[in-house]
Amino acid sequence: MTAVASRSRAVETPTRSIPFGRPIIGDAEKAAVAEVLDGTMLVHGPRVERFESDFAEFTGGGRAVAVANCTAALHLANLHFGFGPGDEVIVPAQTHTATAHAVEFTGARPVFVDAEAETGNIDIAQIEAAVTERTRAISVVHYLGLPVDMDRINAIARVHELHVIEDAALAVGATYKGRHAGLLGDCGCFSFYPVKHMTTAEGGILLTRHDHIAARVGRQRAFGLDRTVAERTMPGIYDVTMLGFNYRMNELQAALGIEQLKRLPGFLARRKANYAALAAGLAEINELKLFRSSQGVFESSYYCLAVMLEGRLATRRAEVVSSLELHGVGSSVYYPGPVPHLTYYRLKYGIDDGDFPVAKSISDRSIALPVGPHLDAEDMAYIVDAIKRAVRDAR
Ligand SMILES: *Cc1c(COP(=O)(O)O)cnc(C)c1O
Questions:
Q1: Fewer CB atoms near the end CB (10 Å): N or C, the chain?
Q2: Which atom of ligand 1 lies nearest, measured to the CA of 191?
Q3: What is the Å distance from ligand 1's center to 286 Cα?
């Protein structure tokens, strides 16, 4: 854009302020947190267990283990299966760096697989070629909340005897064939970071259909002790049977989580309605391509609405984003680059710039637009107008 154009636009005041994400904390959450603070149990109290069972009930099954954040859940999941040096785990290139870090921390090697262009999810057709005799697991990510085709993942896993971990950080409320994300592989990891579907400030949960996984992960999140505080007959007396971390969730977080869960169905309905309104409004803009969303057995959690900039806009993302910003519309990028292109992985594994071209193009050319429950239909109409203006200005 020209200097004159940007100056004249800078003096306009946005008529709305639409942040990409914002936690919604009400009086019930505040009262619940205050109640914890008024008591004596900040950790080891009853709320974490209650939150775990409420969350498991919401997802329709399985056992939930609450932890400090989703990255801790992913780390515990990878450790649980005993991965270590010499092992390989298949990881999508298009994900949050935590998915790969969790593998790396065990000493195993993340073997990256490119994304499919239509959804941003791992390109399942390329997984077989990445499997070697050292492969131990497939760690998938439900990209922006759209479930991966888990029947195909599980079929590959069965043939090669692999574990399946789901990074379901953005998939609270997402289902595949009617089953909630996180219950489709061996275990799934969720995030309650502030801008996600519900929040506990920081927080995460490992969800699994397998009691033995929940039991062991539950101990490894708390130093590897053989009994919880509640299980001790003699205060202070316990044994240690394994290495473990302090990855516990505390009572303040769980109090928030219990209240947020009650509102979650409403949050999810709003996301879905916002997504539909925004998608309809953007459909007529030729320079934008939307990712495939819910379809048939795939029900998204609608984390955001990501668009690919096409044609002459393909190299103009910075202009589009700043035009949106000028009009008060927040956006984000998922993700800043394919994980293997980020410096740590690029240097460690000698990755080439041309590797993972689909993930690279999504990272370079996509914009994630907000559909969160802090927004309504009028906000969606406003975003459509702002996008149209940004597209026009960037021509
Ligand atoms: C946010 C996110 C994480 C990390 O979650 P934390 O709770 O912040 O540790 C991991 N994976 C994905 C896909 C995410 O979006």
A1: C
A2: 7
A3: 32
| Nearest atom, ligand 1, residue 72 CA | 9
Does the pLDDT value for residue 395 go beyond 80? no
Percent of the chain whose predicted confidence (pLDDT) is above 70: 96
CA of 191 to the centre of ligand 1 (A): 6
Answer for the pair 219, 201: CB distance below 8 angstroms, yes or no: no
Q: Which atom of ligand 1 is nearest to the CA of 142?
A: 13
Distance CA 130, CA 302 (A): 30
Asked if 220 contacts 68 with a C-beta cutoff of 8 angstroms, the reply is no
First to last CA, the chain: 9
**How many angstroms does the Cα of residue 183 sit away from the middle of ligand 1?**
18
Mutate to test the pocket of ligand 1, among 97, 144, 170, 190 (most ligand atoms within 8 A of CB): 170
Q: What is the mean pLDDT of the chain?
A: 95
Query: Using 50, 70 and 90 to split pLDDT, how confident is the model at 13?
Result: low
Instruction: Decide: 321 in ligand 1 pocket, CB within 6 A.
Output: no
pLDDT, tens only, 22-80: 999 999 999 999 999 999 999 999 999 999 999 999 999 999 999 999 999 999 999 99
Distance (Å, whole) CA 387 – CA 286 = 12
Q: Is this prediction's pTM over 0.90?
A: yes
Is 56 buried (19+), middle (13-18) or exposed (0-12) by CB count in 10 A?
A: buried
Distance 239 CA to ligand 1 centre (A): 32
Q: How far is CA 335 from CA 315, 341, 360, in A?
A: 16, 11, 9
CA 206 / ligand 1 centre spacing (Å): 12
State the Cα–Cα distance between residues 225 and 242, nearest whole angstrom: 7
- The confidence score (pLDDT) of residue 285 equals 94
What percent of the chain lies above the pLDDT cut of 90?
Answer: 92
Pairing, β 135-141 against β 163-167: parallel
pLDDT at 394: 84
And the tokens for 209?
């259909």
Cβ neighbours of 10 (radius 10 Å): 9
| Residues 335 and 270: beta-carbon distance below 8 Å | no
